[in-house]
Amino acid sequence: MTLNDACCNTPPTNAEWEPRGSEKVLATKINGHERKVYRTGPKDSKRGIIAVHDPLGFHPTSLQVYDLVAESHGGFQLAAPHIFPQGGALPESLLGSLPDILAWLKDNGDFKRDHIHDVILAAVEDLRADGCTTFSIFGQCWGAYISVLAASQPGSIFLAAGGPHPSFMTIENVKDVNCPLILLASKDEADMIPVIESVRHKNFPVESFQKRFDNVPHGWCGSRGDWSDPEAYKAGLEVVHLLGEYFAKVAKVVENEE
């Protein structure tokens, strides 16, 4: 499984959203460089979320999802780091060419070599410094795959991983995950049930979850999302609810053990 046609051919939308959060510089430099993170949500929450943008970077609907998830189900402090250096993103000129997109991701989006894992860990520490004690991670499209990689590392502290319209989501790619998954596919992704079933034997305290939205296209909760469309808006709000509900549930398990 790789990127689907809708992911390769669909440009970002001109959606409108006034961000409720703000950007800050992470305390930890990555490979000698300062990196920024978008922070949103109530500052008194002890529940942290890391969000990983899709390859096209930050766009209004992506930020809308982050803001609304952060405000849901009692509130979370959410950190969405600029994953690529200097706030970069996949050039829109590459859309329409799967080989070129995959080559760009190979050159710019390697989890370890391009310090993506380091950026995520620095964002976690930023949240921890502001009082967070539990952490989940999600992403859109390729970002969902990155969230699973982060949650598959030895000693991972993430309580859940996944996200909407996930790419590269295969049984092989989730085999080492250390937490339950929440996968919210659009009409353009493959069936996520086999992926979810493949991790059930791990007996996580909260069951993995999947839901398919057959009335919306890939990217509707990220850079390609246009929530002026009533169907996309309705489905988007359901994704916000499901993510917030799930992340609150996994956090509560840990809080009840303390």
TrEMBL record:
Pfam families assigned to the protein according to its UniProt record, in alphabetical order: DLH (PF01738)
Dienelactone hydrolase domain sequence ranges: 38-225
Coiled-coil spans in chain: none
A molecular function GO annotation: hydrolase activity
Source species taxonomy: Eukaryota, Fungi, Fungi incertae sedis, Mucoromycota, Mortierellomycotina
SUPFAM superfamilies cross-referenced by the UniProt entry: alpha/beta-Hydrolases
InterPro entries: AB_hydrolase_fold, Dienelactn_hydro
UniProt-recorded name of the protein: Dienelactone hydrolase domain-containing protein
